[in-house]
Amino acid sequence: MYNLPNILTISRIVVIPVIFLAIYIHTTLWSILAGVLFVIASITDYLDGYLARARNQNSVLGRLLDPIADKLLVVSALLIIVANGMVHPISYIPVIIIMCREVLVSGLREFLAEFRVGMPVTRLAKWKTGFQMVAISMILLEKLYVIGEYVGFLGEWMLWVAGILTFITGYQYFEKCLDYIYTVENNKKNPVKVVEQEVKKIAVKVKTAVSEKVKNTAQKKRGPKPGNKKSGTYPVKRGRKPKNKSVTTAE
Questions:
Q1: 20 to 30 Å CA-CA from 49: which of 39, 127, 157, 245?
Q2: Structural domain tally of the chain?
Q3: What is the pLDDT of residues 174-198, one digit of tens each?
Q4: Structure pTM?
Q5: In this predicted structure, what is the pLDDT of residue 194?
């Protein structure tokens, strides 16, 4: 429970309040510190999964906290970006898309978990996460000396790429959930097919049992067959009688 992957996951949750203070402390040093902490936290997001697989330290606590820590970290960073006006107002669109997608996927996973249906992470979703983490890190580090302005501008463009990928992956997850719902609803609306299949199975079983019963009854009426070892009777061989021959005996 207290292995290294779980400690890294918990550290991402612990560092969130520190990063969130960047909303209230408007200094260059604190903004850079928040960006550096977010970069470190993003790296631990990769390391905890890698170490858990490499050391075979997968745990229930890790599977519970890992998605929660990721969502809390991303949402907190997006709130800092919007509150401090670090991006152009038009770039609030991908921010809203990312936040809505996180809520949507969490709701879908909770709904499908009731039916024990999994929703695995796709390769495109992993690319989305990579673009998202890099974009937020670059925007938070826009106050770096000399290169900060260019880093922030590039990060804003990457935020749009992450927003597009987020929309696509969110729609894919939603479509999978709808397919499952349609399947369940169609089974409920067409119970005749299910009943028909069950009746056919019962009819086949009854037919087989009746045919076996009739066969056994007919065999009993006919009696045992000649030569049946179980009845103990054997057929008598009929052939020609042997000829009488004169036999001389020596006295």
A1: 157
A2: 1
A3: 888 888 777 777 766 555 555 665 6
A4: 0.69
A5: 56
